[in-house]
Amino acid sequence: MTKTIAVIGAGPGGYVAAIRGAQLGANIILIENREVGGTCLNRGCIPTKTYFRNAEIMSNFKRAEEFGITAGEFKMDGKALQERKNNVVGTLVKGIEQLISSYKNIEFYNGTANIKDKNTISIDLKDGTEKTVTVDNIVIATGSKPQMTETKGVDLDGVITSDELLEMEEIPETLIVVGGGVIGLEFASIYQELGSQVILLASRILKDADKEISRRLTPILKKQGIETYIDIRAKEITKEGNKLKVLAKYKEKDEEIEVIGDKVLIASGRGPVLEGLNLDELGIKYDDKGIFVNQEFETHIEGIYAIGDVNRGVQLAHVASAQGVYVMEKIMGHTPDINMDIYPNCVFTMTEVAHVGYTEEELKEKGIPYKASKFMFAANGKALSLGEGEGIIKILAGEEDKKVLGVHILGSHANDLIHEGALAISNDLDINSIMRTIHAHPTLSEAFFEATLGLENQAIHIA
Ligand code: FAD
User: Fold this and answer.
1) Is 29 annotated as belonging to a binding site?
2) What is the pLDDT of residue 150?
3) How many whole angstroms from 324 Cα to the centroid of ligand 1?
4) How far is 376 from 356, CA to CA, in rounded Å?
5) How close is the Cα of 12 to the center of ligand 1, in Å?
6) Which of 147, 202, 350, 394 is deepest in the core (most CB within 10 A)?
7) Confidence class for position 443, pLDDT limits 50, 70, 90
8) Active-site residue identified among 300, 318, 419, 441
9) pLDDT recorded at residue 338
10) Domain map of the chain by residue range?
């Protein structure tokens, strides 16, 4: 009998799961109450990376003289920025809609799903009608939404989340960013280039990154012009005429600061979207971080799965998609062959940060013997030709078996370079497999190659 599987939410978790399920022969019922593509495509990854490209171009204009180019006056037009973003998003949304409709075994419903029991979902359709469907399995992929801090004054006009910032045509003169995680840092870096004076208030910078990398990133942010305060917590936001004032207190010392800006972006994390899921009645366990799932992303109720941002794992689009594929393969009786613990983390600050696998701190904590090798972008020909000599690649490998354990990159195109490391770690490769691979010249990948050679004291361009 053909299985019928409901997927609630058509973000990168849900729509990818739906397509994989359809490829494997299931009847898929895909339910989405906003736009296909979810947060990632409409309010996350793609809009920010479209802005990132504008920020890169602005940065190039600012540096034109360095390359012997005389640039005239230039400034970012916020309306044009919005239009470009909306065009890119619109094109991709249409593409995904077409993809979904090309599968005859995917029934798509634009509406809100309410789970009635483990085999029944009622859908409040956008046209005002209701539809009830009966299914064998349910995959919850309802994603996440911005979470506000408990800072006083977050309800004031001008205190915004990433959702509102991405809808704004205006480029604020001064933007205060609260939060040193990926989202906060990306917006800080992007808006500084787009023309805002950014003030960053962060209790930590990239808490999951290797400490050496986050330590090296801080001066880069400052050099970019971002007024950066670390080890600090925003306490209260108040109105100061038509501006906003943030009072912040250092964590370790008894000192406070006040900063004034036009908008305050709260980037302090995201929480799960659980409305309509009826979790309490179903007996599905959850907390404010998301739904509890086992190693196979199954909830406490057999046959109901939770993937992507809505479960208590990491919040990344590619992780949501990988979980979606995994779950569908499992439901359809296959044995998915993928290491779900290894995934690249990418940060689109103006000098990019990417990492995969263990950090040095984690290896020390676990008592795993390792060797570390670093290569500076300053010694890489391609990086210097690009004018991007700032950066470092650090490779961590097992002392005995030489298996690649962690790769940490701060530098131009780090987010593309990281995949050689991800490939090595996911496949349990040792450093010899990288060392015997001829890397093209002149490329940034040579920095990766040299860092690996350095583990055996064979690097050519390290004195
Ligand atoms: P979502 O993308 O949130 O999709 C869930 C969908 O379910 C939504 O469309 C929602 O409307 C729908 N839904 C919810 N409840 C119901 C219901 N009851 N019935 C029907 N539909 C429902 N990740 C990266 O990997 N790279 C990046 O560069 C990156 N940049 C980001 C930048 C920003 C500003 C933000 C906010 C996030 C970023 N992320 C990035 C994170 C990424 O967007 C998420 O990890 C990803 O979208 C999670 O996918 P998902 O499918 O789990 O959920």
Assistant:
1) no
2) 82
3) 13
4) 18
5) 7
6) 202
7) very high
8) 441
9) 87
10) 4-145+271-332, 149-267, 351-455
Q: Which residues line ligand 1 (CB under 6 A)?
A: 8-14, 31-34, 38-40, 43-45, 48, 112-113, 141-144, 162, 183, 273, 276, 308-310, 315-318, 320
Interface confidence, given as ipTM, is: 0.99
Mean pLDDT, rounded, for 47-51: 98
Classify domain 4-145+271-332 by CATH architecture: 3-Layer(bba) Sandwich (3.50)
Kindly report, residue by residue over 249-300, the tens digit of the pLDDT: 999 999 999 999 999 999 999 999 999 899 999 999 999 999 999 999 999 9
The string of pLDDT tens digits covering residues 356-401 is 999 999 999 999 999 999 999 999 999 999 999 999 999 999 999 9
Q: pLDDT digit string (tens) for 392-435?
A: 999 999 999 999 999 999 999 999 999 999 999 999 999 999 99
CATH number for the region 351-455 comes to 3.30.390.30
Burial state string for 386-410 with b = 16 or more CB within 10 A and e = fewer than 16:
eebebbbbbbbbbeeebbbbbbbbb
pLDDT at 91: 98
Looking at the predicted structure, is the pLDDT value of residue 148 above 90?
Answer: no
Among the listed residues 3, 280, 334, 30, the one whose alpha carbon sits nearest the alpha carbon of residue 137 = 3
The residues pairing with 286 across neighbouring beta strands, listed in sequence order, are 291
Residue bearing the CA closest to ligand 1, atom 43? 40
3-state secondary structure 153-177: CCCCCCEECHHHHCCCCCCCCEEEE
Is 102 annotated in a binding site? The answer is no
Q: Does domain 149-267 have CATH number 3.50.50.60?
A: yes
Whether residue 181 is annotated as binding a ligand: the answer is yes
- Residue 140 amino acid letter: I
Q: How many whole angstroms separate alpha carbon 240 and alpha carbon 34? A: 36
441 given a catalytic annotation: yes
Number of other CB atoms surrounding residue 129 within 10 Å: 9
Cis peptide before 442, with omega less than 30 degrees from 0?
yes
Give the mean pLDDT of 431-458: 97
Tens digit of each residue's pLDDT (9 = 90 or more) over 333-352: 999 988 999 999 999 999 99
CA–CA gap between residue 198 and residue 224 (Å, rounded): 10
Task: Output the CA 320–ligand 1 centroid distance in Å.
Answer: 9
Distance from C-alpha of 421 to C-alpha of 395, rounded to nearest angstrom: 8
Distance CA 354, CA 420 (A): 12
196 is in an annotated binding site: no
For residues 265 and 256, what is the distance between their CA atoms, to the nearest angstrom?
20
Q: For residue 145, give the ligand 1 atom closest to its CA.
A: 3
pTM of the predicted protein model:
0.97
Mutate-to-test residue for ligand 1 from 8, 29, 31, 40, highest number of ligand atoms within 8 A of CB: 40
Structure tokens at 442: 């002149």
Same fold, 149-267 and 351-455: no
